[in-house]
Amino acid sequence: MTIIAQISDTHLMDVENGDVRAPKRIEWLRRCVRDINGLDSKPDAVIHTGDMSQHGSHTEYMLAREILADLNMPLYVTPGNRDSRSALGKVFLQDGYFQSDSKFLQYAVNVGAIYLVAIDSVCEGSRSGELCDDRLAALEKMLNAAPNSPTVLFMHHPPFEVLTSNEPFQFGSRDVIEKFGCILRNHPQITQIFCGHAHRSFASDLAEIRALTVPSIAVDLRLDMPETMADTPVYQIHSLYPDHGFYSETRFVM
Question: Is 133 helix (H, G, I), strand (E, B) or coil?
Answer without folding.
Answer: helix
